[in-house]
Amino acid sequence: MTTSESSRSVLGAARTDDYLKTLIAMRDTLARSIDECDSMRDLASLNKQLSDTLKLIDELKPAEQVGDVVDEIAQRRAARRSRAAKGAGSA
């Protein structure tokens, strides 16, 4: 099994001991199975499994950072200046 194959298969992902990678491989396998499914009974089960897997992936993904430290400093500075301007205007 090549590195490319191992990252796409559930077994290959599970062997890495990386839970998130394994869930992503499971998601892909489930989605592929849903696309190829002919049984409505099986389709309902596969959809439920995919939904549960997507929730777990969402919980494990690191939160996306909006902006960086420089943006945070700029926001704090703007807030201080705004407060200072309001205080000077009311005096």
Task: Give a description of the structure.
- With 91 residues, the protein is mainly alpha-helical.
- The chain has a domain of 62 residues.
- It is built from 5 helices and no strands.
- Helix 3 packs antiparallel against helix 4.
- The longest helix is centred in the middle third of the chain and has 21 residues.
Which helices and strands, and how do they pair?
Elements: H1 3-8, H2 10-15, H3 19-36, H4 40-60, H5 69-89
Structural class: mainly alpha
H/E topology pattern: HHHHH
Could you tell me how far the N terminus lies from the C terminus, measured between alpha carbons in angstroms? Answer: 74 Å
Mean pLDDT: 85
User: What percentage of amino acids are in beta strands?
Assistant: under 5%
Number of strands: 0
Residue runs with pLDDT of under 50 for 5 or more positions: 1-7
Number of helices: 5
**Main beta sheet, described?**
none
The helix content is over 70%
Gyration radius over CA: 24 Å
Brief rundown of the structure:
With 91 residues, the chain is mostly helical. The protein has a domain at 3-64. It is 79% helix and 0% strand.
Feature tags:
single chain, 91 residues, mainly alpha, 5 helices, 79% helix, elongated, disordered N terminus
